[in-house]
Amino acid sequence: MLALGTVSLITDVSSEMVTAVLPLYLVAGLGLTPLGFGLLDGVYNGVSALVRLTGGHLGDRLGRHKALAGIGYGLSALCKPLLLLAHTLPAIGAVLALDRTGKGLRTAPRDALISLAAAPEERGRAFGVHRAMDTAGALIGPLLAFLILRGAADGYDAVFTVSACVATLGVLVLVLFVPGRRTVPARDTAPVSLRASLALLRRRDLRRTALCALLLGLCTVSDAFVFLLLQKATGIADRWFALLPLGTAGAFFLLAMPLGRLADRVGRRRVFLGGHLALLLAYGLLLTGAHHPALPYAVLLLHGAFYAATDGVLMAEAAGAVPEEHRGGGLALVQTGQALARFTASLGFGAAWTVWGARPALSVAAVLLALAVAGCSRLRPGGA
Q: What InterPro entries does the database record attribute to this sequence (predicted)?
C-alpha cells in the first residue's frame, strides 16, 4: 500500500507540474479561446475513459494488475518530453491524448490492487491513505512548477523537462518496490471476459453507483476552469496562477483520510454526495462575485473537500459490489462513465463560456449539479 502510494506521489508531482501551468500556457501563451481550451481539457480528461475498460479488463483477464499499471505509468512518462515539441492545437491534443491513454490503462488496475489488499470494512480508509499520498504529489508539483517558472528563462520548457524526469522515477519505484498480486478466478465463476465485465452492470448496487457517478460528472466543471474562474473573480496575477492547485491539493491531503474513515462508518454514498454539495457551494461563492480576501481560500478548501469526499470513496463503494476476479473491470466501468461525463461537461462548459460568458455558464452548471445531487439522493443506498 505504501509503495503504491509512493509511486502515485511521485507520478503526481510530474503530472501536476504540467497541469498547474497548462491552462495559462494554452490560453495566455498560445492564445487559445475558452472553446479551444475546453476541447483540449476534454481530451485530457476524457480520452482515458476510452481505454480504462481495456486496462481493467486486461488486468482481470491476465491476473496481472501491476503489469498493466506499469505500462500505463510508462506511457505517460514518455509523453512529457513531447510537450516540448508540440506548439499547435492538434499536436498538443495528440500528446495529451497519449498521456491520458497511459492514465486510462493504469487507473483501474491500480485501484484493483488497493481494493484487493484492504479488508472490505476498511476500504474507505485504504483509498483515503492512497489518495492522501497521491495528493502530496499534487502539492509538490505546482510548487515546483512555480519555482521553475520564476527561476528559468524558458520556464514552460523547463517545467516539461523536469516533469519527464520525475515521471521516469515513478516508473522505476513501481517496478522495483510494488509487490504484484496475481488473481485467479474461482472454479465456480465464469471466465473473465469483456462481456462478463460489462454484465456487471446488471448488479443493482454497481449500476446505481455508476449512474450517480455519471450524472454528477456531467455537472462537474473541470479543475482548470475552476482555477480560471477564480483568477477571473479575484484578479490573481498570472505569476501566482500555478499556486492555485496547491489550495485544492492541500485540502484534499488533509481531508482524504478522515473522510475515508467517516465513509466507512456512516456510509460511502452519503459522504460522496456530501462532497458534491461542497462543490456546489464553491460554485455559489464564485458566482457571488464578492472580492473578499477570503474568497480564494474558501473556494479552494471546498474544492479540495469535494475530491477528498468523492475520489477514493467512490472506488471503495464500487469495490464492494464487484467480485475479486472482475475487480479491475468493475471499477473501470464506474471510472469510464464518470470520465466520459466529465469530458462532455468540459466541452459543454467551454462552449457555454465562449457563447454566453463565464458567469451564465457557471450558473447553468450549478443548477444542473443541484438537480443531480437531489436525484441521486433519492436512490436507495446500495453497498457499504
A: MFS, MFS_dom, MFS_trans_sf, Sugar_transporter_CS
